[in-house]
Design a protein that fits this description.
26% helix; 9 helices; 7-stranded mixed beta sheet; single chain; alpha/beta; 23 strands
Length: 413
């Protein structure tokens, strides 16, 4: 087991860690990046087989490197994204060590910096950047007991339809993951129930431009705080099969059975909240308001973008709204699998410093934590709406690297 000293230790070798490394190098700050698996491991081993990025290749990338094998408007596969990050690490000559897990970080007593215990020895670091991102611990609501009958997996463990036992599937969660998994299962011939909660539903493209472009020109990526009560509202958008707008009415027309929020389970019966109509209506309102803002932007700037009147045509309410299913007997419905597309929680149990609240969540401002010398990167809304996206984390990393460089300059005087 080894022992060493570093100026800055970056924990995590995904998009956040690599962005941090680039900006630290640009600032001339010596550092080391530790990754417990491979670079961008979660893209390789914790995503389903057919996953593609939800943003086009021109947008979902770092400024310094394009996806060389993709058209700008195409959507990268999970393997292409992982390969991209490996290529980027090589391009910037990131000082990264893989296969090393950080087990604890504690402030030194009576001297600056932190003592970091790892699976490969001890490191003394003056600064620590937690760049492990938001996808640490899969969240499965404690609703259906494990011995209730159906196979239950989180979306991070789902790979393909063949993985699941024969029979119908309940997919819980109507964000990008839940919608894409439900659609894939349906296309494989499964009977699918999709539990739909609160969501935002932007158009994939409108008037010839991708929604990522619209959020950019309308200033929405730079929003610094989420709307009240919408901190965790998911975005339902898909890059699958060339990219398309998620339309719950269209999913119902395909044959997917829509139900409301999954609420409770008792004696073989699962119950749903009577909120499907409200959730779909709120998603529609979000969709239409973005079209309104886009049209106003076109008019205000005199842009020659083709009108798209059909985009405002909403189909009839699906049967799940007009005749809602509020409970299902799992055995009678032949539901033998439940896929929980219900998101993740952070896990900073290794970070044993005064930078977390009583619930273990980071306390910070733009990534600068309440514990001097500790920083966070890659979290949703770290500084703005785009913070958890590939391009957004790159800009956040620049701010954090500048902060570290400034602190180092004070310490030299």
């Amino acid at each position: 087991m080894s022992s060493q000293e570093v100026e800055v230790l970056v924990v995590g070798g995904g998009q956040a860690g690599l962005a941090m490394s680039e900006h630290l190098s640009d600032c001339g700050v010596p550092h080391l990046v530790l990754e417990r698996h491979r670079i961008a491991e979660r893209w390789r081993s914790e995503r389903w087989d057919s996953l593609v990025a939800n943003g086009p290749a021109w947008h979902d990338r770092f400024p310094g490197l394009e996806f060389g094998d993709l058209a700008p408007d195409a959507f990268a596969s999970k393997e292409q994204i992982a390969d991209y990050f490996e290529a980027y690490a090589e391009k910037i000559a990131a000082p990264i060590r893989t296969g090393v897990e950080v087990t604890s970080v504690r402030r030194n007593a009576g001297r600056p910096g932190f003592r970091v215990e790892t699976s490969d020895g001890t490191i003394d670091a003056r600064f620590v950047v937690a760049a492990t991102g938001p996808f640490q611990r899969p969240v499965v609501p404690p609703i259906v007991p494990g011995d209730a009958g159906p196979l239950q997996i989180h979306s991070s463990s789902y790979r393909n339809p063949e993985q699941l036992p024969a029979g119908a599937v309940l997919v819980v969660g109507a964000g990008s993951s839940g919608v894409q998994i439900a659609e894939e299962l349906h296309r494989s011939g499964r009977r699918v129930y999709l539990s739909v909660g609160a969501h935002d539903r932007p158009p994939r493209r409108y008037r010839g431009r991708d929604f990522c472009w619209w959020l950019g020109v309308l200033g929405k990526w730079d929003a610094e705080t989420p709307p009240r009560g919408a901190e965790h509202v998911t975005i339902a958008v898909s890059g699958a099969r060339g990219g398309h707008t998620v339309d719950f009415r269209a999913l119902a027309a395909l044959g997917i059975n829509l139900v409301g929020l999954t609420a409770s389970f008792d004696n073989g019966t699962i119950r749903f909240a009577p909120d499907l109509g409200t959730n779909i209506a709120n998603g529609d309102a979000n969709y239409l308001s973005l079209l309104d803002e886009a049209d106003a932007y076109v008019a205000r700037n005199g842009l020659d973008l083709p009108e798209e009147s059909g985009a405002r045509t909403l189909g009839p309410d699906p049967a799940g709204v007009t005749d809602p299913v509020l409970e299902l007997d799992l055995a009678a419905a032949e539901i033998n699998s439940i896929v929980w597309a219900t998101g993740f929680a952070v896990d900073y149990s290794w970070l044993q410093v005064d930078a977390l609240d009583e619930n273990g969540r980071p306390q910070h401002r733009r990534g600068v934590s309440t514990e001097p010398g500790v920083y966070f990167l890659g979290l949703p809304w770290l500084a703005r709406r785009g913070s958890s996206f590939i391009w957004g984390v790159w800009h956040d990393a620049k701010f954090v690297a500048d902060h570290i460089a400034t602190q180092r300059s004070y310490l030299r005087h």
